[in-house]
Amino acid sequence: MYMASIISVQNLKKQFQVGGGLFEKKEFVNAVVDVSFDIKQGETFSLVGESGCGKSTTGRLITRLIDPTAGKILVNGQDVANAKYGELTELRETVQMIFQDPYASLNPRMKVKDLIAEPLVIHTKFSKQERERLVYEMLEVVGLNVEQANRYAHEFSGGQRQRIGIARALITKPKLIIADEPVSALDVSIQSQILNLLKRLQQEFNLSYLFISHDLSVVEHISHRVGVMYLGTIVEQGEKDAIFNNPQHPYTQALLSSVPIADPTLRREKIILKGDIPNPKNPPSGCTFHTRCPYAMDICKKDIPVMEQVNGKQAVACHLMNGIKEQAQV
What is the pTM of this model? Predict the structure, then answer.
């Protein structure tokens, strides 16, 4: 059962500069806007949303693969958002990442045993024999054979490569794994194997996951809590069952209405959102979703909604929900 928070993200922001050449005006894209959430020990917190909503950028900010513009990233109570490169050793040991494309994240010139052992070379003073022993143990943990240790990445299937990526991430015994679309490039049958492996490893090592995906069926299978992102900000977050069974934000409702139902006797009314996602270089004022929201009010165009609890299991940033809550309290 999950307990204390492994990581706390507070008001995280990231701006990317675009343009700004000799004859170009500087422009900025707000990729992540005021994102906050906690991940507790032993739980899976998932970020979902359309492509370009900022979920992968959030994962890379937490690992400090890219630097945040503002905000805090507390890892075991220590803020690493502004830490210098030499001060990130503990972060690298505590937080590791599994990437979407396992082949692109593995050096094709290195043998599998060297790929998996590389974090040990960087972060520990183990002998070569000790590193090899740990590598062989980890290969068996993720479902690979010791005999495969001397092969190269191109000799493996996609699912096997992802197992190698998982072994590489686990070798330093981290507490948090950031899994960025870890099964989206795999066949459906292989997806279930990798998801079941991640769940087994979570129980075995008491791992926490930040699971990033656009596939809601996968998210429902693996998550404890879910955060829904739209145009760089979280619009709703809470316990998985509450989000999937009783979505509060209009965007969450639209997302879930698009998920196919396995039972052909059941029907779900699909919510079609009008218009396109706004340009992040020039986002709408107020609630960024108001240009596509079927319930938009005047206040939505002017004021940014605040994330508030609507019940004990989920919170939502929506003027409509907050207005209903205020009327109920009167």
Answer: 0.91
